[in-house]
Q: What sequence folds into this?
C-alpha cells in the first residue's frame, strides 16, 4: 500500500478515482438525532435543572447549583495566571492581527437620495448576543476561540457568551485565557446538545442568544441544525482539507509538512497535492515517507493520507487550477512563483495561500483572516466566518411625497396583476393624497 | 369578537398576550418529511425519469420527454407577447430600480500590504449557478421573480435556472415575462420537492446548481432544508408581517389599508399597529371595520386580523420603538414625522419604511430594496436577500519572506500549545528557510 494515493489526470480512471477520493458525507445517525431531540426538549421544559443533570451525566461533573455553571472571574484570572507568558503573548499578538483584518470586513451603513427626494439605504446593526461553542478535552483549540470571538467583538455584538464542557471538571487554561484575550463576556462549563439548547432557548442562568457559532462533535452539529431558525448558526463543518498546487520548485519537505498539517487534524482530513512535475511528486512521496516517522501524530496522518490523500499529476498549471476550482477546497495553497497573478482564475476556495512562504499553518493561527472556512466543496456557495456573520442589514426606504406618487403608480399596476388589491389601494392612497 | 385585537402595554396581561400573538411555529409534519425524502431519493437515483413521473402525478402534466421539461424560447416569447404593455413596462421599470439598489450592495475585493511586504485580502467571486424556485398557481408572483433573480444577475452569477410548476399544464405568462425581464437563462416547468432535488443534485436535463432561492409551500421548504449543505439555500420564510408605529397623525384609512396589505397575503399573516394615541387606535379600528367590506380578499384579511392582528396602545414613541426591537418585524413602518431621526434606535427589522408616504406596498414592488426579508423575529440575526447572497469571499494570504518568519515564530508557539506538531514544523521550515 502506498503511503499516499497517486493519480494522473490523463488516466482513463481519473475522474472516478477523484470522485471517490473527494466523497464525504456526514453520517446521518437517527440515534444521534433522537438523543439530541430529547436533550433539547428537556432543556426547554426544565431549564437549569436539566442542564445540571446532563452535565453530571455526560461530563461526569456534579455541580452544587446552577450558579456554579458559570466560571467566576477569579477562576478565569487563575487560568490566565497559569498560562505561560510566551503563550499569552502569542495569543495577544494573534488577536491583534485577527482584529486588524476583521476591521477591514466591517459593513457600513449607506444611503442615497434620488432626484425626487426619496431616500434608499441599508442600515447595518450588530447582533445583540452571540453564543460561542468551544469543544472540551483533546480538541480544545485556543486559536478557535480567537477566530470565532474576535469577529463578533469587532462587529459590535453586545454580549458574547461562551460554552465549553469540562469533562470530569477539567478546564483548559489556555482556552480560558484565549477567551479573556478575545473579550468574551461570560463562560459556562457546559457542552454537547444541552449547551446548544441552553444557548438557543435560554435557561434561568444561561441567556438565550441570537446566533451560535463554533465547532463541535456530531451531537453538537445535530443540535445546531435542530435549533437553526430559532437562532442563526454558522456552517456545519466537515473534515479539514488542503489542496496544494505546486510547480515543483518548492522544497518537497515543506510541501510534505504542509500536507501533514491537514492530515494530523483527523483521520478523515484530506490532503492533496497537484503538480505538472511528475518527478517532483516522487520527491514529495519520498519526503512524506521519511518525515512521517518522526511525527507525534503519525498514526492519524498515515490513515488520512492513505484514505483521502493524493498526489495528482497534471499536464500544466492551467489544468491544476481547473481541478482546484472543481474541488473548491477549504484551503488552497498556490506554491509557485507568480501565483499572485493567477488569483483571478480561482473561483472557489475558502482561503488562498499565495507563494511558497505562505504555509497554511500561518493562516490557521495568526496571519489575520479567519480559520473557520467552508469545507467539502461548500466554498462554491459559502465564505469564511467573518465580521459579516455578526452584522445584519435592514433596508431603508423613505419616500418623498413626489416619490410616493411615482412609485405608487407603478406599484398599483404590479399589485393588481397579482390580485393583491389592498397593496394596490395602499399605494393609491399615497398617489391620490399627493397629487 | 373584535375585528382586530386591542392591547395596552400598561395592562398586567400585556406581555403574555403579546407572546401569544407573536407565537408562530411551522408545523413539523413527519408525513411531509417522509414524502420529501422519498422524492429526493427517487430524483437522485432515477433523474429525469422520476422527474417526469412526479410532474405527471403532482402537477397532472404528462410530458412526452425530458426535453419538454424546459420552456422553449418561443414559448417564453409568446408569453411576453401576451403580457399587457403597461404591465411589461411596469416590470421593466421595477427591474431598473431593483438593479440600481442591488448595484450598491456589491461586495468588492480588497487587499492591503503590510510593512514587511505580506499581502492580506479578500477576493469576491459570484456563485457559478443559481436555482430560483417560483411557486405555480395562485401564489405565482412576478414581483418575486424580479426580487430573487436580479440580485443574482447583478452579482455576476453565470447561469440562472428557474423552476416553476405548471399545474394542469397552465403557465403564468407574467411570471415568464418577469423571468425574461430579470435575465433568467433557463426555465423548467417543474415544482415541489422534485424540482428542489433536481436543482440540488442535477439530472440529465436539469443542471445542478450551487444555491437555491425562492419561496414555496411546505414540501418545498422541507426539501430545501433537506438539501442544505449540498447546496446553499436562502431562508425558510414564515408568514409575512407588518408592524406600524404611528404618532396618530397619518390618515387612519391609510394605516388600515397598510395593515390589510399584509393581512391579505395569508390567514396567518401578522399586522400590528402601535401608537401612543388611544383615540387614533379607535379611528383605525373604525377604518378597518369600514374598509374591509369592499376588499376582494376580505375573508383572508378578517381571519388574519382576528387571529394575529393587533392595535397596541403605548405610553409614548420610546416605548413603541422598544417594542418594535423586541418583535424584530419583517416590515417596520415608521409612520410619524421625524422618523428618519430615530433610525439609529432601530436594532432589528428586515426593512424600515420611513414616514407616512412610504407605504410598505411600494417596497414590495418597486422602491428598489428586496422584498425577500427575514420573518418571525429572525431579523434579530438575518438580513434581506441581496447581492451578498450570490457572492462569496475567499481569504487571501501572501507572506513575504520576512512576513513568514514573523508569523511563523508566532504560529510555532500556538501550534505546539495545541499539540499540532506538523503545523508547527510547517511554520518552522519557513522561519529557518528565510533566516
A:
Amino acid at each position: 500500500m502506498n503511503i499516499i494515493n497517486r493519480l494522473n489526470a490523463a488516466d482513463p480512471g481519473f475522474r472516478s478515482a477523484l470522485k471517490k477520493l473527494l466523497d464525504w458525507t456526514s453520517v446521518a445517525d437517527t440515534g444521534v438525532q433522537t438523543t439530541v431531540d430529547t436533550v433539547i426538549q428537556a432543556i426547554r421544559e426544565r431549564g437549569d435543572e436539566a442542564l445540571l443533570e446532563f452535565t453530571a451525566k455526560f461530563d461526569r461533573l456534579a455541580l452544587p447549583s446552577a450558579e456554579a455553571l458559570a466560571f467566576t472571574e477569579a477562576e478565569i484570572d487563575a487560568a490566565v495566571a497559569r498560562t505561560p507568558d510566551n503563550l499569552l503573548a502569542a495569543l495577544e499578538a494573534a488577536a491583534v492581527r485577527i482584529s486588524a483584518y476583521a476591521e477591514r470586513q466591517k459593513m457600513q451603513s449607506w444611503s442615497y437620495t434620488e432626484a425626487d427626494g426619496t431616500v434608499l439605504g441599508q442600515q447595518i446593526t450588530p447582533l445583540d448576543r452571540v453564543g460561542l461553542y468551544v469543544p472540551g478535552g483533546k480538541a480544545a483549540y485556543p486559536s478557535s476561540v480567537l477566530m470565532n470571538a474576535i469577529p463578533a467583538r469587532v462587529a459590535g455584538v453586545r454580549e458574547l457568551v461562551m460554552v465549553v464542557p469540562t469533562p470530569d471538571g477539567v478546564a483548559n487554561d489556555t482556552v480560558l485565557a484565549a477567551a479573556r484575550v478575545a473579550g468574551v463576556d461570560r463562560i459556562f462549563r457546559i457542552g454537547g446538545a444541552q449547551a446548544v439548547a441552553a444557548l438557543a432557548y435560554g435557561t434561568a442562568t444561561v441567556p438565550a442568544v441570537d446566533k451560535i457559532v463554533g465547532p463541535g462533535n456530531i451531537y453538537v452539529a445535530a443540535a445546531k441544525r435542530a435549533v437553526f431558525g430559532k437562532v442563526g448558526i454558522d456552517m456545519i463543518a466537515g473534515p479539514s482539507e488542503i489542496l496544494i498546487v505546486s510547480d515543483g520548485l518548492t522544497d518537497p519537505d515543506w510541501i510534505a509538512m504542509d500536507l501533514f498539517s491537514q492530515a494530523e487534524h483527523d483521520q478523515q482530513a484530506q490532503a492533496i497535492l497537484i503538480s505538472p512535475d511528475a518527478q517532483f511528486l516522487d520527491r514529495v512521496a519520498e519526503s512524506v515517507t521519511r518525515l512521517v516517522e518522526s511525527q507525534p501524530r503519525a498514526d492519524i496522518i498515515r490513515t488520512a493520507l492513505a484514505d483521502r490523500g493524493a498526489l495528482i499529476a497534471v499536464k500544466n498549471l492551467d489544468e491544476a487550477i481547473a481541478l482546484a476550482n472543481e474541488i473548491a477546497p477549504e484551503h488552497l495553497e498556490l506554491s509557485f512563483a507568480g501565483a499572485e497573478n493567477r488569483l483571478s482564475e480561482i473561483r472557489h476556495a475558502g482561503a488562498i495561500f499565495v507563494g511558497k512562504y505562505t504555509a497554511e499553518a500561518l493562516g490557521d493561527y495568526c496571519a489575520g483572516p479567519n480559520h473557520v472556512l467552508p469545507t467539502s466543496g461548500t466554498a462554491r456557495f459559502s465564505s469564511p466566518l467573518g465580521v459579516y456573520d455578526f452584522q445584519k442589514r435592514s433596508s431603508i426606504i423613505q419616500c418623498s411625497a413626489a416619490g410616493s406618487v411615482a412609485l405608487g403608480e407603478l406599484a398599483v399596476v404590479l399589485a393588481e396583476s397579482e390580485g393583491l388589491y389592498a397593496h394596490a389601494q395602499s399605494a393609491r392612497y399615497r398617489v391620490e393624497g399627493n397629487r
Notes: Chain A touches chain B through 115 residues (CB under 8 Å). Chain A has 15 helices and 14 strands. Chain A has three domains: 5-24+238-367, 30-233, 399-433.
